[in-house]
Amino acid sequence: MSKVRVLVGTHKGAFVLSSDGKRKNWDVKGPFFGGWEMYHLKGSPADPNRLYASQTSGWFGQLIQRSNDGGETWEPVGNKFAYDGVPGTHQWYDGTPHPWEFKRVWHLEPSLTDPDTVYAGVEDAALFRSTDGGQSWQELSGLRQHGTGPRWQPGAGGMCLHTILLDPTNPSRIYIAISAAGAFRTDDAGATWRPINQGLHSQHIPDPDAEVGHCVHHITMHSSRPEVLFMQKHWDVMRSDNAGDTWQEVSGNLPTDFGFAIDVHAHEPETLYVVPIKSDSEHYPIDGKLRVYRSRTGGNEWEPLTKGLPQRDCYVNVLRDAMSVDSLDECGVYFGTTGGQVYCSADAGDNWAPIARDLPAVFSVEVQTLP
Amino acid sequence: MTPRLVRIELPAHLRTLAGVGHEVTLQVEGTITQRSVVDALEARYPMLCGTIRDQATQQRRPFLRFFACEQDLSHEPPDAPLPDAVAAGTEPLIILGAIAGG
Predict the structure, then answer these.
(1) Taking the CB of residue B46, how many other CB atoms lie within 10 A of it?
(2) Cβ B51–A61 below 8 Å, yes or no?
């Protein structure tokens, strides 16, 4: 019988949650790296027991941890993230030039085919790659140096590269997203990049339709249709049917289109999930009701999913990397909150139950579907 | 110059990371300075690279301090000799995390 393993990164350590295919009874292991900020953990699609984790601290800097046994044991690997050449400057909050400075790793994306190859999205925004299991890291500097870099500016959370999507049908194509620069695509395995923000409209920048400067919160795709992208922008849920060349808004009847997390059903490429958050000045759900919204039409038409979720006095947030799906026959949907709850729906969102209620604030949730 | 045995106290998270106790004793070559001690520490425990000094600048991380003999040596030059008692191994170099939280 299939199993699922949920990798949870929190403000004060990592947790590994395991269950069988029923997803009723859970084994909770952790905290691993107690006291450290665990921004993201992710397993290799090519070897599910190979896990990578970003461990960071305001005191001690950045570490990368690797497991070869599904999270039972871990070892620190390379943590030297050196920008390629003279890093130059980006814009600071006040518009003045500010030198690029490495701060932390937000997201780790293992290769789809090679357990030893993994990408890291970092703050200040850059993309790194390791081909030796995380021992050494090289910047794919064509992204930072392609021309618009000096115009990038941090969002409130820092200038982070937080989203990395690998095209399963084209190893040369990678999508990334940066707050608050926008989305970018390479079609030559990272040598050259171009902004893919046409159609985004952002009122918080002087030119709302600018080539760069958009606060993209997260992007997702379905592996069967990698040219179709779905984006949760700061405000607006967006869709692209041409690999990001152009975008259309699909917020439709959402009660608010601000939010962070977005994901796609494992077997239905037009079924999407978002968690609407009231506003960028109030990072909690509307009316104290925690509601996931599902669209079965690729956007525009959304339905609230509430069964098993708190419908009063709930003022948590769901961060950009804190939602994931499994690929069991009946797709499971998972998300974690800044209140320390991790919720699971074993029936595509119709019913929800907490796996854990009292973890530290959840930064990231990634699910592995295991044989 | 004969290598000296230097005692170093580490903050809790770094002890866990390196798998050591409250204090480690290391053989350090040459003049006993912040740089030579941390170099020796990182050579013996490579998982600590980058946790005490920034990887790119080799500067002390801002929320860490170097104490010894009841003095804050954090702003001393990294190549300045540490107190004789540290070099003699009678006092430890204390690497301390700043208190923060709430």
Answers:
(1) 12
(2) yes
Give A309 to chain B, closest Cα distance, Å. Answer: 30
- On chain B, the residues whose CB falls within 8 A of the CB of A79 are 49-50, 55
Instruction: Give yes or no for a contact between A274 and A322, defined as CB atoms under 8 angstroms apart.
Output: no
Contact: A59, B63; criterion CB under 8 Å: yes
Chain position carrying tokens 């947790």: A15
How high is the ipTM of this complex? Answer: 0.93
Arithmetic mean of pLDDT, A345-354 = 98
Question: Closest chain A residue to B13 measured between Cα atoms?
Answer: A35
Residues of chain B in contact with residue A76, where contact means CB-CB under 8 angstroms, are 17, 47
Mean pLDDT of chain A: 97
Chain B residue whose CA is closest to A57? B51
Nearest CB neighbour to A76, from listed B13, B17, B56: B17
pLDDT value of position A204: 86
**Strands B93-97, B4-9: pairing kind:** parallel
Nearest C-alpha of chain A: how many angstroms from B26? 21
Percent of chain A at pLDDT above 70? 100
Q: A232 Cβ partners below 8 Å, 6+ apart?
A: A217, A218, A219, A238, A259, A260, A261, A262, A274, A320
Model confidence pLDDT, tens digit, residues A257-313: 999 999 999 999 999 999 999 999 999 999 999 999 999 999 999 999 999 999 999
Please report, for residues A24, A181, A306, the alpha-carbon distance to residue A283 in angstroms, rounded to integers and kept in the order given: 30, 21, 19
pLDDT over threshold 70, residue A23: yes
Contact present, A71 and A32 (Cβ < 8 Å): yes
Q: Which residue is it, tokens 């690497």?
A: B95
Please give the class, per CATH, of domain A34-316. Answer: mainly beta
CA distance from start to end of chain B:
47
* Cis before A69 (ω within 30): no
Identify the pLDDT of residue B101.
58
pLDDT at residue B102 greater than cutoff 60? no
